[in-house]
Amino acid sequence: MILLLLALLISSPPKHELRGVWLTTVVNLDWPSARTLSSEQQKRELIQQLDAVKSLGFNAVFFQVRTEADALFPSPYEPWSFWLSNKQGVAPDPLWDPLEFAITEAHRRGLELHAWMNPYRASRDTASYRWADSHIAKTHPDWMMYFTSSTGTYAMLNPGKPQVRDYIAVLIADIVRRYDVDGIHFDDYFYPYNPKITKEDEREFRAFGSRFRDVHDWRRDNVNRMVAQVHDTIKSIDPLVKFGISPFGIRLNSDAGTRGTEGYHSLYADAVAWLKQGKLDYVTPQLYWELNHKLAPYEPLAKWWGKTAATYGRHLYIGMAPYRPWPASEIGKQLLINRRAGIAQGAIFFRTKSVINATNGLQDTLRLRYFARPAIPPTMPWLGSHVPDPVEEVISLRMNRQLATLSWQPSENAARYAVYRMESSRIPADPTIPASVEHLLDITGEARFADSTLRPGASYVYLITAIGRNGEESVARAVFVE
Q: Is the overall model pTM greater than 0.85, yes or no?
C-alpha cells in the first residue's frame, strides 16, 4: 500500500505547487558568471538560465537584486552592484535594467519573478572591493555595525536604529511601485552568524530598548518590527505582491527535537512571531539537511514547519539544497515528504546553477518524475478573490503535420495562461471546466502556444484558462482540433 501511494504521488504531481529557484548574484554564484561580461552577454546568459529553469518544471524565480546594500537595477538610493559591473556604482554599458529584463522574460515564460534582497548586509568583507561614494556605509556611517573575524570585516546596517527600518521600507516601496514583481523575498541574514554580536549595539539598546530588560528580546523585536513595516509597506502599495522570508531551518531545537544552531538565539529571527502577526504570506525555512542527518533530520523539521505555517494560515515553501553532494534520490524523497498530507505547498531550490548544471541525475528526476507536469503557484486565500476574465476568443489555430499553433485574445487581468489538451473526438459537455493536471501542457505568459507532440490521426480538444496574480483560474475556452 505504501509503495502504491508513493507511485501515485510521483505519477500525479499536484496542480498547484510553488516550484522556485534562487538565482544568486552575490559573488557571481549564478549570474552573471563574470563581472566583465558585456550587457548583451549578460542578457543572453540570463535568458539561458530562465529557459533551463522553465524546461525543468519550475514556475518561480527568486532573483537577487540587492546583495550588499547595492542594486542590480537603477536605484535612486543605492549604487549599482559590484557583482554586475566590476566596480560598485558603475552602471552597465550600454545601460540596461536587469530587474526589468528578468521580469519581462520570466513572465513571458509563465514564471513568477520575486525580488530577493538582503535587508541588513552592507558588505561580506570590506576589503573585497571599494565602495561607491553613494554606498550607505559612506552616506550614513552612523547606521553601521562592523564585525571582524579571521575571514575579514563584515559590515551591516544596525537593526536597532529606527532610521534603518524606515530606510529598508523605502527601498522596498521603490521596487513595488516601479516594477511588476510577484513578490519580495528576504533571506536569513539578520544579525550575523559569525562572529556573534556582543556589545556593538549597546548605545542603541540604551536609547531605544527601555521596554526590554533583556537585550536579546530587544534584538528580536528589532527584526520583528522591520518585518512588519516591510509587510505593511508592500501591502499598502499592492496587496497582491507576496512577501516571504527564508530563515535558518532551525528556530529552536525544542521545536522538532534537533541539536543544531538556533536561529532564534543566533540570528534573532523568530519566524513564528512573523507568522502569528500575519506579516508573511509564506515562510521558506532552509532545511539543508539529509533525511538521516544526526543533528537535524529533514522530516521532523518539515513536519514542524508545516504544522506551524498551517496554524497561522500561511504557506510553507521549504528551502531545499541541491547544492549538496547528494544523490538525486535524496531530493526526490524530500519532495515526497513535502507533498505528503500537505506538509508544504512548494519548495525553493538553492541555487539555479546547482540545478541546471547538476550531474547526478537531478534534472531527469525533476523533469520526468516529480515535475512531470506544470504547476500553478498556489492561491493565497487571505489575499482575496481575483479570478481573471476568461479568454474570449481563440483567434488563430494552425495545423502543420504534427504541429499545432494556437493564439488567443489576451485577457486584460490575466498574469499567465494554462493550456490543457485532451485526446477526444468532440468537445466536452461542459467545456468551461479546467481539466486535471494530467492534461496540463504548459503555463505561459504569452497569448499563444505551439504543440509539437501530436499523434498522427488523433483528434484533440484544447482548453485555455486565464490565471490571475493570485493563482486563480478562469473558466476555460475550448477549441477542437482534428
A: yes
